[in-house]
Amino acid sequence: MAEPVDGWSAGRSAYVIAPFVLGLLLLVTHLQATGLNDGLPWRATSPDSLASVQLLSATLPRFCVAILAGALLGLSATLLQQGLRNPLAEPGTTGLLSASRLCVAGSLVWFPALSGSLALPVLAGTILALVIVIGLSMRQAMSPLFLVLNGLVLALLCDAVTSVLILTRYEDLADLLLWQAGSLVQNNWHVTRLLLAGLVLLAFIIVVLRKPLSMLDLEDTVSGSLGLSPKMVRLLAVGLAAVATALVTAHIGLLAFVGLAGATLAKLLGARRFLHRAALSSVLSAGLLLVTDQVLQRGEGIMAIPAGTVCALFAAPLLLFLLHSGRTRTSPGTRFELKWRPQRFTGRALLSALVLLLVIVTCLALFLGRSDSSFVWASFDNFPELLPWRLPRVVAALGAGSMIALSGFLMQRLTGNSLASPEMIGVSSGATLVMLPVIFFLPPLSREQTMLVAAVGALIFLIIALRLARRSHYAPERLLITGLAITALSGSLLSTVIYFGDIRLTRLLGWLSGSTYSVTGFDASVAVLVLAITLAVLPFLRRWLEILPIGESVSVALGVEIKIARFWIILLVALQTGVATVLIGPVTFVGLVVPHLVRLCGLRRPMVQAAGCALGGAALMVAADWTGRMIAFPWDVPAGLIACAFGALAFGVVVSRRSQ
Fold first, then answer.
1. What pTM was computed for the model?
2. Which of 324, 341, 365 is the last residue of a domain?
3. Does residue 539 have a cis bond before it (omega within 30 degrees)?
C-alpha cells in the first residue's frame, strides 16, 4: 500500500465526497417531491412557468449560495488559524462577527431607516473591529497572542453590549434575530454572483501567496531570517479572512461554527500543509452547509428554520465522531508565552495590591447603596437590616469570580492555549442545554429546582466529555475541540430558540448574562465551600502546574503521570465551573482574561499566579455586581455584562502600559 502524502489517505476521500453526494441526492428528491423537476429546461413547457421560475430563481441559487458561503468561511477560518497560529481561531475570535452584530443592533435601535438593508452596518462593524484589533496589536508587532486576546476582548465586550440592548429593547430587535439566524433563502442570482467572485478572487490570492502564508508555520525569528515580514503577512491573512467573512455575513447573516468545523475536520483528516488545509477546509465547510440546508428544506412544510442556527447540529457530531474514532490524530497547537519585561514590583507587592483592591470593592458593595436621587452610605443603625440582602450577593460574586478565574488559569496551564477557558470542557454548555427545555416546557421553577436541573445538566456533560477524552489520555487539543463542539451544539440550539422570538427567552438571557439577583445565603455558602476546597487542593497540584506547560515529552521524562495529572486538573476545573455556572450563570470573560491580566502584571510562578487569579477574579465580579446594582437603579444589570466592560478596560490599560 502506498504511503499517504501529507497525512492524507485515499480512504478518507469519502468524507469529502459524501456531503456533496448527499446534498445532490437531497436536491433531486426535493425537486421530485415538490414537482420542481418540471421546471428543468429540457422538461419545462414554458420558461415563465411557476416551476421554472421557482427552480431557476430560488432553489438553484440557494443550492449554489450554500456551497459558496461554506467555502468562503472555510478559507476564512484557515487563514485566521494560520495567521494567529491557533487551532481555535475563527472569525468570531477576532471580534468580526460580534462587532457586526452590535452595529446591526445599534442601527435597528437608533437608525431604523437602515433596516431595509443590513449590509452597511455589517461592513461598518467588520471594518471597525479590524481597525481596533490591528491598531491595538501594532504596539506588540502584530503578535499572534495579542491579536487573539485583543480580538477576544473586543468580541466579548461587543456581545455584552448587544445583550444589554436585547434585554432592554427586545421588541425593536426582531430583524436582528432574523438576520443572525443566517438564512440561505434566495430569490435571484445576485448574491450567488457576488460570492462566486469573492471566492475566485480569494482563492487566487491564496495560491499566489501560498509560500509566504505557509511560512507563518515557522517561528517569527526563523521566517524573518529568511527575508519574510511575519507582521505584514499576518496582517494580510487576517485582512483577507475579514473580507471573506464580511462578504458572507453582509448578505446571509451569521453562520457560526461552519468555517471552524471545516478547518478542524481538514486537520483531523490528515491535511498538514497550508494550501492543502485551505482547499480541504473550504470543501468540507461547503459540504456541511449544503447538507444542513438541504435537510432543513425537507421540513419547511412544517417549520422553516434557517441553516445558520442549526449547522452545528450536523457539524458537531461529525467532528466528535472523527476526533474520538481513533482514525485521526490532531497536531499540537502552538504554545504561547507572554514576554515579560522586568517587573517593577515584587509578587508580594502585587498580591497585596489585589487584596487591598478586593477589600475596597467589598466595602463599597456592602456599605454604599443608592436611592432614587443619590448614593447612600449604610449607617450603623440600618446596616444590620441591609446585610441579609447584600452579603449573599457579595459573597457569591466573590466566590464565583475566584472559581472561574482559577479555572481559566488551570485550563491555560494545562493546554498551553491562550484561548482556553473553563467553558471549553462543556460543563456550562451542558447546563444551558438542559435549561432550554425546562424554561420552555415546564412551569416556572423555584431557584432551588432550577439549580438542581442545571447541576444535573453540567454533570451529564462532564461525564460525556471525560468519557470522550479518556481514549487520548485527556490530550489538551482533543479536550478543547471536544468542548468547543459541545459549546457549538448548545449555541446552535439557543440560536434556534432565539429565532422564534419567544418572550420566555428573556428568563434564559438573564441567567446566561451572569446575574446574582436571586442568590441566597445558602448559595453563597456553597460558593465559599467549593472555593475553600479548591484553594486547599491547589498546593498539591503545584508540581504538575510547573511541569505540564513545558510539554508532554518533558513532563513524562520528569516522572509526571500525564493521564492522572490531566484528569484531576480537569475534574477540579469542572467542579468550579459547574458550581459557579449553577449559582450565577456562565461568566466567560472572567475565566478567559483574568489569567492573562495576572501574567501581564508580572506574576509568574504557578502558585503566585493562582493567588492573583483568585483575588483578581473576586475583585472583578464584586465590582461588577455592585456597579450593576447602581448604574440603572432600581433595575439590575447582570454582573457578567458589567464584568466584560471592566475586564476590557483593565486589559487595555495593562497592555498599553506594558508596551510603552
1. 0.76
2. 324
3. no
- Tell me, what amino acid is at 346? T
Same domain, 302 and 411: no
d(CA 604, CA 607): 9
Kindly state whether residues 309 and 417 are assigned to the same domain.
Answer: no
3-state class of 368 per DSSP?
strand
* Rounded to 5°, angle at Cα 64 from 58 and 66: 100
Determine the 3-state secondary structure of 8 from DSSP: strand
- Are 178 and 45 in the same domain? yes
Residue 428 near residue 581, CB atoms below 8 Å: yes
Query: Is residue 514 left, alpha or beta, with left meaning phi > 0 and alpha meaning psi from -120 to 50?
Result: left
* 293 and 406 share one domain: no
Residue 341 lies in a domain: no
Element (H, E) at 377: strand 375-377
**CA–CA distance, 569 with 564 (Å, rounded to integer):** 9
Final residue of a structural domain among 297, 324, 351: 324
Is residue 348 included in any domain, yes or no?
no
For residues 589-621, one letter each, b for 16 or more C-beta atoms within 10 angstroms of the residue's C-beta and e for the rest, the string is bbbbbbbbbbbbbbbeebebbbbbbbbbbbbbb
Q: Average pLDDT per run of 10 along the chain, which is 660 residues long? A: 46 72 84 75 69 83 92 92 79 80 87 74 87 78 72 78 76 75 84 94 93 84 80 88 90 82 82 88 90 80 64 67 55 46 64 90 86 76 80 90 89 74 70 74 71 74 71 65 69 66 63 72 88 91 83 79 84 83 76 82 84 91 86 74 75 63
Spatial separation of the C-alpha atoms in residues 654 and 17, rounded to whole Å:
49
Helix 606-631 to helix 383-415 angle, to the nearest 10 degrees? 140
Separation in Å, CA 5 to CA 9, 217, 480: 7, 19, 27
Phi, psi of 334 (to 5 degrees): -75, 130
The verdict on 280 and 399 lying in the same domain is no
Strand partners, 376: 369
Gyration radius of the chain's alpha carbons: 25
Per-residue model confidence (pLDDT) at position 328: 47
Contact 585, 512 (CB under 8 A): yes
Predicted pLDDT of residue 197? 94
Domain co-membership, 208 together with 284: yes
Same domain, 540 and 439: yes
Query: Are residues 69 and 290 in contact, defined by beta-carbon separation less than 8 angstroms?
Result: no
- Amino acid at the residue 103: C
Full residue range of the structural domain in which residue 444 is found: 389-659
CATH, residue 306: 1.10.3470.10
User: Is residue 550 in a domain?
Assistant: yes
- Tally of domains in the chain: 2
* Residues 265, 70: Cα–Cα separation, whole Å: 14
Are 447 and 320 in a shared domain?
Answer: no
Is 330 domain-assigned? no
